[in-house]
Design brief:
Among the domains are: 4-63, no CATH class; 85-189, Sandwich (Immunoglobulin-like), CATH 2.60.40.3880; 418-499, Immunoglobulin-like. 30% of the residues lie in helices and 25% in strands. It is built from nine helices and 15 strands. The protein has helices at 4-15, 20-27, 33-76, 83-88, 260-276, 281-289, 294-308, 320-331, 345-371; strands at 95-96, 100-102, 106-110, 122-130, 136-144, 153-157, 165-175, 178-189, 383-385, 388-390, 418-426, 429-448, 454-469, 475-483, 491-499. Residues 80-89, 217-255 and 373-408 have low confidence and may be disordered.
């Protein structure tokens, strides 16, 4: 059996630039010829397998590149079909005017890729899909005949009782064999008659959706500084309200400064929202909307989301880090869809990791319960009923399931054992045969006299081995038999044979 450590040492010498002859000469100073040759052969076999795998990878890469080039050439070939066919086969896309719409509001979308010239009837299937549950909250269909005049400006009225949350508008277009699908994200907000900086609609004096004017200037897509329009100042109450000391009001020229009365009012609203969130989340949501301070308002939405157990309120938090924290709360409470909404990459990976750990624990628990199958024999006892006995009753309190073995004895490593070695002369060849207890490859290292300078190898994985040694001269030969596999240790047998 080849010494694995010696084989590894040969590999290191080979990587340093020594050739096989130099390595063999060096090994023979410290090891027997049999040990050195067996280890060298094991090393050469491993290198041969690596080269073969590299060749396969190169071949696979070449085929992939050729296929990619062919695909690109195919895509670049101009379409020689008629104008009708070109129009029908164009890529289907659409756009939405509003990224957010209130309950009872109208969602406008533009089917800008429907061709004017149509060879076949076009069928449009619409769905508004809840991103949290992946279920359709609304669906409808539209058929466009070849001769119809089609207006791409379309709209859909969101029902007043439509659930608040994140959705996607999915439109599937079918025209003959051509089927295409496209989707856009849409948010449904709670209906509010009062315009504000968190309604997802361009209103008031905003330059863009929830940005500009009294809602402040947009920094970028992920970082907005947004504020509510300040309510008229109220006279300070004679009753002093303690302001939490944990929040520090930072000075910023771009931030409208709040008076002490406004700060007190914000905390009153936040406190009222937290109390009513569990029983009346919509009322709590409207209270949060009245808060002027962005930080306090976002804390309010966070508490409403937790108390009402509704992921949709997290969407009202504008600061990315705080919104991600809100989603993470739901992810740690077994909401598997919350991770999809997280923006920060590290936070998202952590979220998915927690879900995987939770799933692994559940799987382990299921496996543990499935393993507990045997029961301790039921204990029989006697019950006395008015001087009569009944020995057939079973004491169910004595039925227990055994504790599963937590530390089972590790399985012993298997070894390939060689047996039934035979040799047979066939013309000028010698056939060496043997058997192994486990399927493995076949190697015979042989030589005239005591020299082991030649070999015959077969990579067929079998239990009945047969290797043919060709073109032998008369005399006595020494040989070594070796069988091994990728995962099991190998057994080596040494012997001699004469020819003829």
């Amino acid at each position: 059996m080849a010494d694995q450590r010696l084989t590894q040492y040969i590999k290191q010498l080979s990587q340093k630039g020594y050739n096989i002859q130099e390595i063999r000469g060096y090994l023979l100073k410290y090891y027997s010829q049999q040990e050195a040759d067996a280890a060298l052969w094991q090393h050469m076999k491993q290198e041969k397998q690596k080269k073969f795998m590299k060749l396969l990878l190169i071949l696979f890469a070449a085929i992939t590149i050729l296929l990619l080039i062919g695909f690109l050439i195919y895509k670049m070939i101009p379409d020689v079909s008629t104008e009708d066919n070109k129009a029908t086969a164009s890529t289907f896309t659409f756009s939405v005017k509003e990224s957010a719409v209130q309950q009872g509001g109208v969602l406008h979308y533009n089917l800008n890729s429907i061709p004017k010239l149509r060879k076949e009837t076009i069928t449009l299937e619409f769905k508004i899909v809840d991103k949290q549950t992946n279920k359709a909250a609304a669906s409808w269909k539209q058929i466009i005949n070849k001769e119809d005049n089609f207006n791409g400006q379309q709209s859909y009225t969101i029902q007043p009782d439509f659930a608040v949350g994140n959705y996607k508008l999915v439109i599937k277009m079918s025209s003959g064999k051509d089927v295409q699908e496209s989707s856009k994200n849409v948010r449904v907000l709670i209906k509010s008659d009062e315009e504000n900086c968190f309604d997802g609609i361009k209103n008031q004096d905003e330059d863009d959706i929830d940005c500009g004017g009294i809602c402040a200037k947009r920094c970028d897509e992920e970082d907005r500084i947004e504020y509510k329009q300040k309510a008229p100042e109220e006279k300070e109450s004679s009753e002093a309200i303690e302001t939490p000391q944990s929040e520090t009001i930072k000075s910023d020229e771009s931030v409208p400064k709040q008076s002490y009365t406004e700060i007190q009012k914000d905390y009153e609203l936040k406190s009222q929202a937290e109390k009513s969130a569990a029983t009346s989340p919509k009322e709590a949501y409207n209270l949060c909307l009245q808060i002027i301070s962005k930080t306090t308002a976002e804390d309010c939405f966070y508490e409403v989301a937790k108390a009402s157990d509704s992921l949709s309120y997290c969407t009202e938090i504008q600061t990315v880090k705080e919104r991600d924290s809100c989603y993470m709360y739901f992810a740690t409470n077994n909401n598997e869809f919350a991770c999809d909404e997280i923006v920060d990459a590290e936070y998202k990976n952590l979220c998915y990791g927690l879900l995987e750990i939770d799933a692994y624990k559940k799987k382990q628990q299921e496996n543990l319960e499935n393993d507990i199958t045997e029961q301790i024999p039921v204990k029989e006892f006697t019950v006395v009923y008015e001087n009569k006995t009944d020995a057939s009753k079973t004491d169910v309190s004595q039925v227990y399931k055994p504790i599963p073995e937590l530390n089972p004895e590790p399985k012993k490593e298997q070894t390939i054992i060689i047996s039934d070695i035979t040799s047979e002369t066939i013309d000028t060849n010698k056939k060496i045969s043997w058997k192994t207890n486990i399927a493995s490859d076949s190697l015979v290292i042989y030589g005239y006299g005591e020299a082991l300078d030649q070999q015959q190898y077969s990579d067929a994985i079998v239990v009945e081995h047969s290797v043919m040694i060709p073109e032998l001269s008369d005399g006595e030969y020494s040989f070594v038999i070796n069988s091994s596999s990728e995962t099991l240790s190998a057994e080596t047998e040494v012997g001699t044979f004469t020819f003829p």
